[in-house]
């Protein structure tokens, strides 16, 4: 790999403490991991280092905790899921710095694997504060970043630590960058992007540049509601960030100038409650009841999405079209995923999809293996698509 060192350059690691930044921000329901793809993807790096006798210390975040440590955002259940995937014990320390982490690291034998508690339990992580970074780095001799999907964050564990220790890219980091370059480095046009999901505020800005890179942008999921509201459509009680209306309007202007078509839902599946088995109906997008939530796009929109997939030579997809975890709000995502998979199998489409929940949705549809490439990254993947330097990758290039 050009530009930075990988595990091929790491030399002897036996007995060394290797801090490995991984992405364990996996979908969880009722305390159980519902899609283990991100864990499976980091297994090769962990097994390789552990097999060579390193003490493998995993650093990761989980969710977006706002108020310090909490059971809701603890990585402890994910340590168990990681052990299942690796087929070997994974220790757990209830803090990522300080005595708890240091004691757990000191007790490790060569080849052991230890997961440290959620780095985001410390506010200093996201601020990339030097004193915190130093405390994280104190537990390692070498740093490996295998979290491509978190590389768009300039946080202490994704960026800061790489300045303090010899730093290398892990196998998944390497494979993701290689695969994205191969699939999308010089994409065959027309390029159609589908963006959905729920992380509206952290992803909407990315669309400003994305519309200059693609020929059509299909907006679904929670993301669509902010655009619909900006256009004056009443979205009732749907997930919507009304304060981002001016950003959404500007994106639509930029898209028109760049010649990128924007496709918004024409109909929606609405319910009054966000739960399995809730009564739902499909309505025209202008007829969403004031107390209703749009939880999926409707059949008319699905037809428009599949028509755009038919026109595409390259498809880029991040974010489900609906709240696919709850039936029947998985219909549109499953239909679009199956359609894209079939076109790919026919050799008519290069399909690249990414994101923690997007991968889970493709697995739910049973078609993840039929896409050209499935990245574990969502936001990082979109930023890479925009051509933006990713801090977690750039620092490895020093
Ligand atoms: N209309 C909707 N209303 C509410 N939630 C929605 C809607 N459509 C999709 N979602 C939710 O969006 C979530 C996924 O969004 P998200 O932006 O996190 O995608 P992702 O693929 O995980 O990307 P990343 O890896 O960047 O997090 C799912 O949990 C899904 O239920
Ligand atoms: O799920 C993701 O996309 C990554 O883990 C990054 O999570 P974040 O958007 O909360 O930084």
Automatic annotation (TrEMBL):
The keyword Cytoplasm applies. It comes from the Bacteria. Pfam families: PGK. It catalyses: (2R)-3-phosphoglycerate + ATP = (2R)-3-phospho-glyceroyl phosphate + ADP. InterPro entries: Phosphoglycerate_kinase, Phosphoglycerate_kinase_CS, Phosphoglycerate_kinase_N, Phosphoglycerate_kinase_sf. The keyword Transmembrane helix does not apply. Its main location: cytoplasm. ATP binds at residues 203, 325, 355-358. One of its GO terms (molecular function) is phosphoglycerate kinase activity. Substrate binds at residues 23-25, 38, 61-64, 120, 153. Keywords: ATP-binding, Cytoplasm, Glycolysis, Kinase, Nucleotide-binding, Transferase. It is found in: Cytoplasm. Pathway: Carbohydrate degradation; glycolysis; pyruvate from D-glyceraldehyde 3-phosphate: step 2/5. Its EC number is 2.7.2.3. Belongs to the phosphoglycerate kinase family. Monomer. HAMAP family: Phosphoglyc_kinase. This is Phosphoglycerate kinase. It comes from Mesorhizobium dulcispinae. The lineage of its organism: Bacteria, Pseudomonadati, Pseudomonadota, Alphaproteobacteria, Hyphomicrobiales. The gene is pgk.
């Amino acid at each position: 790999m050009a530009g930075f060192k990988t595990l091929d350059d790491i030399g002897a690691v036996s007995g060394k403490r290797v801090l490995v930044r991984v992405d364990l921000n996996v979908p969880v329901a009722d305390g159980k991991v519902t899609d283990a793809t991100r864990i499976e993807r980091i297994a090769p790096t962990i097994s390789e280092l552990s097999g060579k006798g390193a003490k493998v210390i995993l650093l990761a975040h989980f969710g977006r905790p706002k108020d310090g440590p909490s059971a809701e955002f603890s990585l402890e259940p994910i340590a168990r899921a990681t052990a299942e995937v690796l087929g070997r014990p994974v220790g757990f320390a209830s803090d990522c710095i300080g005595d708890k982490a240091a004691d757990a690291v000191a007790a490790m034998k060569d080849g052991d694997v230890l997961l440290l508690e959620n780095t985001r339990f410390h506010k200093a992580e996201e601020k990339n504060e030097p004193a915190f970074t130093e405390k994280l780095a104190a537990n390692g001799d070498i740093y490996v970043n295998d979290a491509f999907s978190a590389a768009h964050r300039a946080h202490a564990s994704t960026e800061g630590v790489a300045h303090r220790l010899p730093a290398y890219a892990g196998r998944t980091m390497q494979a993701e960058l290689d695969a994205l370059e191969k699939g999308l480095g010089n994409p065959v046009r027309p390029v159609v992007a589908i963006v959905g999901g729920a992380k509206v505020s952290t992803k909407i800005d990315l669309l400003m540049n994305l519309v200059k890179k693609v020929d059509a942008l299909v907006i679904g999921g929670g993301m669509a509601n902010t655009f619909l509201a900006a256009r004056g459509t009443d979205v009732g009680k749907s997930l919507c960030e009304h304060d981002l209306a001016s950003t959404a309007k500007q994106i639509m202007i930029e898209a028109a100038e760049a010649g990128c078509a924007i496709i918004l839902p024409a109909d929606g599946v609405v319910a009054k409650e966000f739960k399995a088995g809730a009564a739902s109906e499909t309505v025209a997008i202008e007829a969403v009841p004031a107390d209703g939530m749009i939880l999926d796009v409707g059949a008319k929109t699905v037809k428009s999405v599949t028509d755009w997939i038919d026109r595409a030579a390259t498809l880029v997809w991040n974010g489900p079209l609906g709240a696919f975890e709850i039936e029947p709000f998985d219909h549109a995502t499953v239909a679009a995923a199956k359609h894209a998979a079939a076109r790919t199998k026919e050799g008519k489409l290069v399909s690249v999809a990414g994101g923690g929940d997007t991968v889970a949705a493709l697995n739910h549809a049973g078609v993840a293996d039929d896409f050209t490439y499935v990245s574990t990254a969502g936001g990082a993947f979109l930023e890479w698509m925009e051509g933006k330097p990713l801090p977690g990758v750039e620092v490895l290039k020093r």
